[in-house]
Amino acid sequence: MNLFIFGLGFSGRTIAERRTARGDRVTGTVRTRHKAQALAAAGLSVHVFGPDGCDSAIDTDIAESDALLISVPPGTGGDPVLAAYAHQIAAAPKLRWIGYLSTIGVYGDHGGAWVDERTPAAPTNARSRERADAEQAWLTFGAANNIAVHIFRLAGIYGPGQSQLVQLARGTARRIVKPGQVFNRIHVEDIARTVDASLDRPRSGAIYNVTDNEPAPPQDVVTFAASLCGVAPPPEISLDDAGLTEMGRSFYAESKRVRNDLLRNELGVTLAYPTYREGLTALRASGEGPR
User: Fold this and answer.
1) Are 35 and 98 in contact (CB under 8 A)?
2) Which of 5, 121, 134, 155 could form a cystine bridge with 28, CB 3.0-4.6 A?
3) Which domains does the chain have, with CATH numbers?
């Protein structure tokens, strides 16, 4: 299979490495020449799509792709991939699968209540509204061009190099408390597992919540990470006293519990890390956290 990934960030690169290990030909994009050179040195086939321009070879790779994954954020002007490459994607002769990495933020705030894929999108901030618009744009594009489009709504992503363990080691971990606040999370490896399963079982127009099994207060996760390391957790601090930026506060403006039944029952995904406990325990065993 030829897979093209727009956006070789944390999730995109993990998916690329997993698919390459399975024998797929994977090509992707980054925003700058500097990043392209770094990833090329690591053995990945990379093009530039961003402020440094757009490599002409992207057109050729799209034309040769069986599957396309979009892992770049939209902006005020809509989805940048559709804006630049809609014609080439529609004309790709072998393309049978498109995946779009979105966010559970499109559901908005539900006061800690449960939501699933049948819950209408009701984004409450500009970033999530842009995501919801991009989701619909891709679904409309897929229907118009007879290409199966799949939407993956991701919870808060963590994994190697990106977790509360790393924050503890850096001295930046904080236990910010807002009563009743809960979040879902997802290990980056389980995102890659989900994409694998969807590639094997495409369903046009599918939307999946890609989350763990246990939404939890953020301060509890920091406390558990500290216990794994045998260190005292940082003191609790109220949201009002945390001095967060407007963007930082926006993450605490929404609280919901997100179900992942469809992920498990339709795609047959068994999460490697069903809660933050398994995920953080594995990361600690790999050497992450304070020494």
Assistant:
1) no
2) 5
3) 2-157+186-212+258-272 (3.40.50.720)
pLDDT at 51 over 80: no
The CA-atom distances, in angstroms, between 151 and each of 117, 184, 209 are: 10, 18, 9
Strands 175-177, 236-238: pairing kind:
parallel
DSSP character at residue 285: H
Write down the H helix ranges in the chain.
10-21, 33-41, 57-63, 80-91, 126-145, 164-170, 188-200, 218-229, 246-250, 261-265, 276-285
Per-residue pLDDT at 177: 96
> 6 has which bridge partners?
70
- Gap between the Cα atoms of 143 and 145, Å rounded: 6
Alpha carbon distance 123, 132 (integer Å): 7
Distance CA 47, CA 29 (A): 5
Contact 234, 181 (CB under 8 A): no
Query: Are residues 82 and 138 in contact, defined by beta-carbon separation less than 8 angstroms?
Result: yes
pLDDT digits (tens, 9 = 90+) for 153-168: 999 999 999 999 999 9
What average pLDDT is seen over the chain? 95
The residue-averaged pLDDT of 98-126 equals: 97
Dihedral sign from CA coordinates of 111, 115, 117, 119:
negative
* pLDDT band, very low/low/confident/very high, at 76 (cuts 50, 70, 90): confident
Nearest-angstrom CA–CA distance, 93 and 95: 6
- How confident is the model at residue 251, as a pLDDT? 85
